[in-house]
Amino acid sequence: MSPEKKAWIKPSFEEIPPTIKLLKQSSKKRPHTALTQSENKNSDWCNIYTPQSVSKLAVHNGKVKEVKHWFESLNSNLLNKSKILLVTGPTGCAKATAVKLIAKQCGFICLEWITPMTTEPIYDQCTDSYCYQNVKDKFQDFIWGATRYRSLKCGVSNGQFLLIKDIPNIFLDKPDEFHDIMMRFNTISQFPIIFIINNEKIIRDLFSTEILEKLKVQQIKFNQITRKSVLTVLEQIVKSEQQKNKLLRIPNSTEMNAIYDETNGDLRASIINLSFTCMSVRNKISKKCSTTSTSSMDVNLDLFHSIGRVIYPKREVINSPLQFKFTHNPDNLVENFAMQPSTVLGFLQENYLTRFSSLSDICKGADAISAADVMLSSDFMFGVSIYDISLSSLSVAVRGLMLANEKPIKVFRPIVKPKHFQYTNDIQMYKDIKIWFDDVHESPKDILLDIIPFVNELGTDKQKNVAKELWRFKRK
Amino acid sequence: MSLWADKYRPNSLQKVDYHLDQAQHLTNLVNQGDFPHLLFYGPNGAGKKTRILALLRQLYGPGVERLRTEHMNFMTPSNKKFEIMTVASNYHIEVNASDAGMYDRIVVMELIKTVAQTHQLDSTKQRHFKVILLTEVDRLTKEAQQALRRTMEKYMATCRIILCANSIGQVIPAIRSRCLAVRVPAPTHEDICKILKTICKKEGLTLPDELALIISQNCERNLRRAILMLEASKVKQYPFDVKQSVVVPDWQLYIGDTAKQILSQQTPGKLLEVRSMLYELIVHGIPTNVIFKFLLKELVKNCDVSLKHDIVEIASFYEHSLLKGNKTMFHLEAFVAKFMLLYSKFMEESLNGIF
User: Fold this and answer.
1) Looking at the partner chain, which of A359, A373, A426 has a beta carbon nearest the beta carbon of B267?
2) Are B166 and B297 found together in one domain?
3) pTM over 0.90
4) Is the ipTM of this complex over 0.90?
5) Which of A56, A186, A458, B13 would you label with A38, given CA atoms 20 to 30 Å apart?
6) Are residues B63 and B15 in the same domain?
């Protein structure tokens, strides 16, 4: 049987095993009985407690209004209306849920693009062979079809819209092709597209400001859900869950807050963590264990935060002023830097100076940084990986700085990017020098040190001008 | 511009003005017909390049002076193309491999391979080898130096390599042992005065002895700089005046200013100011080791004798870590901080002694 024929014969005409039928029935029921359903213990709480109306969304009201306004503007007859909406925001701030619910309220039907995992061969009648369709063509076909022809289901509704949450990877390498498709879409389409993206890099690559203007894209930025709203949602879930299951242990408010902190306000992750916290008691693994935090996620610190902890070290005195420990363990700090150690070292060096109060402390700190740099660029490797060396050298710098800084200056100053990186582009400079002084057969370094200083007296006019522009020291 | 420094560059080993014994040795070496790989080293402006070019002329005749610049293309392992400028004659090729930065290993390997794989066309009239001249070998990465060492042995039959460096401290021992190292020391003050006078004579100018002495004292025993200073002074004012001020390089003055700042006040805030001044120097491409050297010189000038010893000791420590390390600025700053600490302590103690 050729695959073409396969497509025509629906499996429903064949004998259906009874198990499938049962499953289908239960799944049909689920949306209506989701809130009261108690026998379905396996499905996760995120699905069960998906809000069913716009009023129950945890999203800020203003954002809801913005999205709603966009949907309403679609029906108006404005000439300059935008057909593309770009929704951005951190993970787990209910972007997709909000968009879907609002669309439903406004009477739109959602068609969602899901990038296919594998592509099946398509039978080509003309050549009597199988061929593969690439993801790009599929995507284009889908957009073409979904935005021009009404779906069979949307007979009564206002219309339909296309929801794209994951953009095929191919477009990340070739943003031009993506823009091309979008331009064509913009001229002929009937129905709108909504993009939901949370990756900053993708947003920058695919939706630069020019493109946003060109395609008349409206952008709505969702913010992180506030602590208060997350906690209310969690409490509601616990309450309704408790009615079904009396054995459930209610987590106290500190635990709830801990869940929020660990997940950085990610609502989805919070709910999953909540279900885990509740479950661990129900199964009676151990009572002591449940009182400590689940800490399923690493403490997620950004670079500035961790650098702050190094350059403003906090000490906890144990017995006497000589016996103390750091509030933040230097080892943990070193491991939590999510950047190359050499880059981190650059940041530390650039920023440590202004936080030190005395010169002798600075000396110790500078020594530590200097030693770390020597270690970092050492090339001995007796069974030690470069990664280990770089981590230990960073550890030397972090510990050295924390220990040296006895009385940190507690004044806020912004953390700045290391200048060192901007300033080490000698190669380009040497190339430029060679071009300006193409009649001198010396190495660029010698030209720089010996000839440029005398260019005012000896050089040609052009060289003089270049030197005046670029080789002037700024003096106060 | 045709500078005096180029115009009066001696073009044969017989015409060089100083290190005459060494010139004689080099002549003998060439007259034998063959020589090992050479490694010339010495401070800036001592005449390394002059001697190398004179040696090549002695070897191949005036044909080496017909130079052409070529751009050679190389490909990195990640398929990135880059370009290196070379200066070549029919008999030799000159490359500064450190222009390629982190890709210098590829330049060293590819270049020697392409040059060394072709034999000289007419080996009866000419030497049977070509010469590859690599400048600034001390700035090459360790990987490039390792690659150089292997290719050096492999292509000994068809080419000789002449290396040129400021110091052999940064050249790996494996290369040092494969080369005949020739040290070219800086000329003495008397040498410089003599050369300046001969140049003036040829130009038809009269140079007072005092001015020649001032120039030789201000040029850091760098002959190139001395000749440039002379030429700049001539442009500024001629006939020469005994009390005429000579043009001192701007960056050198700036380092002097930096040193004054360090000496004026020893506080964290001042250190921050000094840091920005040091960055200013680095932006203008002044190598960190040069900054270090002149800064130390200026600082020590203003120190008490008892302090000098300590200062030089810490300077040598940080200079060492500067060479070993990667980010030169870190070590420079550590040195300045340490100096400030020592200096302020010393000043406090001496003030206490007075009262």
Assistant:
1) A359
2) no
3) no
4) no
5) A56
6) yes
